[in-house]
Amino acid sequence: MVKVLCRLNEFLNRLLMIAGGVAVVALMALATGNVVLRIFDAPFRGTYEIVSFLGAITVASALAYTQKRRDHIIVDVLAEKFPPRVLRLVTIASDAVVALFFAVVSWKMALWGRKIMLSGELSETLKVPYHPYIFIVAFCCGLLACTAAVDFLAKIRQKGAGKP
Q: Which is the most buried residue in 19, 80, 95, 117, by most CB within 10 A?
């Protein structure tokens, strides 16, 4: 069961990384085009809003993949001092806390997105609904919670101590 969850999680992480890459390219193209058009006194309207939305997608889509690869900031200087068993326990506890925290963040963001959707609130300049972006970030936080939970389960099933 854990293997199936790991594969599904890996697939979703890769899919979101591709979406984040597309968002970065779109963000760069929009920002560059806006700078070029400013030279001719004809900048895009609403660039700030779109760049903000794309930036949120870019950052959120990388969360779970970063967790899976353990590319986030960790204090190696301190962690290197721990015996392998203690390091394993700390990593397991950390994964549990991350899973719980981001599950709550995802849930609260989804509630906020629903509230914005029901109220019909629109972005200030372009007047586009922005609740889909809130839902995307909520989904990405939920996937981060799932990734941490899968890591937690995998480490619990692991025998012996060693590097996480």
A: 95
